Structures are given as C-alpha cells and as structure tokens.
Amino acid sequence: MWRGRRVVLGVTGGIAAYKSVLLARELSLRGALVDVVLTRGAGEFVGAVTFESVTRRPVHTSLWEAGRALEHVSLGQDADLIIVAPATANLLARAAAGMADDLLTALLLAGTAPVLLAPAMNDEMYADPATSANLALLRDRGWRTVGPNIGPLAEGASDRPGRMAEPEEILAHAERVLAGDGPLQGAKVLVTAGPTREAIDPVRVVTNRSSGKMGYRIAEAAWRRGADVVLVSGPTLEPPPVGVTVLRVESTAEMAAMVRRHLPDSDVLIMAAAPADYRPAVTRDAKLPRSEGGFTLAFESTEDILVATMPERHARLTTVGFALETGAAVEKGRAKLLRKQLDMIVINDALEPGAGFDVDTNAVTILDCHGVEQRVTLRSKAEVAESILDAIEAYRG
Ligand SMILES: Cc1cc2nc3c(=O)[nH]c(=O)nc-3n(C[C@H](O)[C@H](O)[C@H](O)COP(=O)(O)O)c2cc1C
Questions:
Q1: Is the N end or the C end of the chain the one with fewer CB atoms within 10 Å?
Q2: Which structural domain, as residue segments, surrounds residue 343?
Q3: d(CA 301, CA 72)
Q4: What CA–CA distance (Å, rounded) separates 322 from 347?
Q5: Cβ–Cβ < 8 Å for 354, 378
Q6: pLDDT-derived band of residue 349, with 50, 70 and 90 as boundaries?
Q7: Does 38 sit in the ligand 1 pocket, CB within 6 Å?
Q8: Of 116, 149, 179, which one is at a domain's C-terminal end?
Q9: How far is the CA of 14 from the centre of ligand 1 (A)?
Q10: What is the pLDDT of residues 275-324, one digit of tens each?
Q11: 284 and 356 share a domain?
Q12: Which residue has the CA at smallest separation from atom 19 of ligand 1?
C-alpha cells in the first residue's frame, strides 16, 4: 500500500515531535517517500538531521530556502497524503484561519492531498473552546483526525485527552485515509473471532485451539477499507485493532447474544470465530476436588449461532460463514453453505500444513451461493483477509 506513495509529514512544536521520528521511520520502511516539513517550533524539539537519517530525504524547514522556491505549492499537490503529527493548538488555529506564514501552513492551504491531523497538547489547551472550534472547522472541511488520547502528558498524569496517538495508530488511520472510498466505506461490519470457553467449574474450562488471528486480521482490514467494525471476540491474546470496537465474550451463549444485539445494525456478518460446539451439561458452582479415579463429563450442544440467528437476518445483510474441516473440506463447506443459508463461506482444512488454527498463515477456498469458487493459496492471514474482503465486495456488487 505504501510503496512509492508520497507522504508529507508535517511536524509542529510539541513534545510529541520525538514520536514522529518513529512514524517517519515506519512510513519509510514501508516504502513511502516521506517529505518531512518542520515548523520552527518543531526544530526546538527534534533536529532535521534525525528525520533526514530515517527518511533518507531532505527535510524542509523554511519557505525561504534557495532552490526550493515553489515547494510551498508543489509539496502538498504532489503528495498522496499529508500527515501533521503532532499538530499543535497553534497549527490548528493557523490552519483554521487559512494562514500561510510558514512552509507547513502554506502547503496545507495550497495542497490537494487528503490531510490527517494528530493533535497533541496540554489537556487544558485541548479542552479550550478555541481549539474545539478550530478542530470542528477543519473536520468540516474534510480533514481527518486521530486522537488525542487520554494518557500521561509531559507535565504529568491526566485523565483527559491531550496525548498524541501512538505512531502505529496514526499509521493505521493513514492507511484508512489512503485506501479512499471503496465499496465497504461506511458499511457496518460485524466480525466474530477466537474460541469460546465453556465452564466446567469456577476454575476449569473447555475450549479449542483458535487464536482469533483470522478474525482480527479481517476486522483490521475491513476498518482500513472504511467500514465501521464491531468485533465480537472470545478470549485471545490478540491486541485490539485500531479503530475497531472490540466486545469481549467468554461462552458461545454470550457470543450468540452479542451477535443478536448487533445484527439489526449490520450490513455484513463475518463469523470467523470458532465457538465451542459443546458445553458441559452441568457447570459446578464449586471447584471439583482432585480425585484419583478420574471422572466422566457429560456434554450438551451449544447454540449454532449462524442457524439460530437465521430468522433475524434482514434482507440487506451479507452473511459469511467459516468452515474448518479435516479432510474433504470443500464438499463439507458447500453443504454447510446450503444448510446455513449463507451468502458465502470460507473453507479451510486444518490438516493442510500452514492452514487453520493458531498459525499466522492460511489457505482457503471461498465459495458463494451463486457457485463462484475461488482458491486462495497459502499466504499470511492478513493477505487472506484482503482476499476475503475483495470477494465480499465483489459479491455485494
Ligand atoms: C516545552 C514546550 C512544550 C510544548 N508542547 C506543546 C504541545 O504539546 N502542544 C502544543 O499545542 N503546544 C505546545 N507548546 C507550545 C508550542 O510550541 C507553541 O505554541 C509554538 O508556537 C508552536 O509553533 P508551531 O505550531 O508553529 O510549531 C510547547 C511549548 C514548549 C516550550
């Protein structure tokens, strides 16, 4: 996505400027051509040489540099994206007023590329009505923002927003802006991920080997494509994806209830979770004591979420199921597509090396109810997620 893309990274005079070095580095490592523009204030915090070293490109610090006379126009017009991180209260005010008294404000005014701001300032400065009004005006003009977050500020702890979003968060938002307006823009996508856990007693559970990685990669990719994403997640070690609303559940019954709650608002349901099919018939209130003789546990079936919610599916919903099989996977998956009245099913065979649970790769077959079949050979789950979303977009037309 980033290779060869031109990014202007404006850095203004806040403490968080040091974190923008990491952002510049990450963008450059991904292949972007990063033109850093420092305000005079930014130069007080981080030197041009640091940015030049990580971007391997000249850094811009003034409107008045000989040999660069028209960069105040060309930089913002040649760019694919302009990021300002950190964006000081002062920068927001000057940009909102349409001022152009330094290189960064001039290129923002002349620029045609989308703009992403990462405001960062003292919490009182951020809460001031002047700053709120300036930000509202800039958002109205179509500029996007990320953060500020609640967290420690240079001047100490705070429970109010002011801290700049972390570089990886800014990067994720930048990818969403760069992706532009695709077919999933504004769509409400409900994804489930991970295993569920069924309690035997207060300390023991029955679960499965699902890591949640596939569902999390799908949720991230759908959000980057502009969707509003709700991720209903069983217990996993995956960190919450940027921008995605993560709702944690434990049991299959809890997952079913959460899916039911969000189904009426959703345009797409992607059931990538591996909910437990069985639960102990009886859950003990107290811990079972250890005994030498062992014990027998009786199981009962849990609710099949896709089947149980069938009557609640509305006409515009696209329902995508997953089938993890061991052998004859495509035939079994096709039968499941019909039985569960799905629009699409993603089939993987746990016996195939590198596919299925608890690995970073997958190989799948995507089938839709019109008989379109697509094989996605072994690749990272992030890449498989993109193929699944491409197929969903094509199916929805
Ligand atoms: C130590 C120090 C830290 C500052 N941190 C911030 C900050 O985080 N956010 C902010 O909006 N202003 C901050 N300021 C104030 C700005 O540097 C000041 O408003 C400056 O004029 C900004 O110029 P610029 O927006 O052109 O870079 C700080 C000032 C100092 C001296």
A1: C
A2: 188-396
A3: 66
A4: 6
A5: yes
A6: confident
A7: no
A8: 179
A9: 4
A10: 999 999 999 999 988 888 888 999 999 999 999 999 999 999 999 999 98
A11: yes
A12: 90
Same domain flag for 165 and 65: yes
Same domain for 237 and 349, yes or no, is: yes
Residue 245 lies in a domain: yes
**Does any ligand 1 atom lie closer than 6 A to the CB of residue 105?**
no
Answer yes or no: is the C-beta of 99 below 6 A from any ligand 1 atom. Answer: no
Ligand 1, from 90, 92, 108, 128: best to mutate by most atoms within 8 Å of Cβ? 90
- Structure tokens, 392: 């969903």
For 64, 264, 341, 386, 393, the CA distances from 313, given in Å and listed in that order, are: 62, 8, 10, 25, 19
- Residue 194 gets the label, from left (phi > 0), alpha (psi -120 to 50) or beta, of left
- Asked whether residue 37 falls in the same domain as residue 136, the answer is yes
Q: What mean pLDDT is predicted for residues 18-33?
A: 97
> From the CA of 48, how far away is ligand 1's center (Å)?
17
- Is there a single domain that holds both residue 17 and residue 104? yes
**What's the full length of the chain, in residues?**
397
How far does residue 223's CA lie from ligand 1's centre (Å)?
32
Q: What confidence tens digit (pLDDT) does each residue in 129-168 have?
A: 999 999 999 999 999 999 999 988 877 878 899 999 999 9
Atom 30, ligand 1: which residue's CA is nearest?
Answer: 14
Q: Is 380 helix (H, G, I), strand (E, B) or coil?
A: strand
In this structure, are 239 and 381 located in the same domain? yes
Which positions are catalytic?
208
The residue among 179, 207, 224 that closes a domain is: 179
* Cα(81) to centroid(ligand 1), Å: 24
Instruction: Answer whether 14 contacts ligand 1 (Cβ < 6 A).
Output: yes
Return the CATH number at 127: 3.40.50.1950
Angle at alpha carbon of residue 117, lines to 115 and 119, rounded to 5°: 165
User: Ligand 1, closest atom to CA 91?
Assistant: 25
59 alpha carbon – ligand 1 mean position (Å): 20
223 and 366 housed in the same domain: yes
Tell how strand 361-368 and strand 33-38 pair up. Answer: unpaired
Ligand 1 pocket check: which of 88, 92, 126, 135 to mutate, most ligand atoms within 8 Å of Cβ?
88
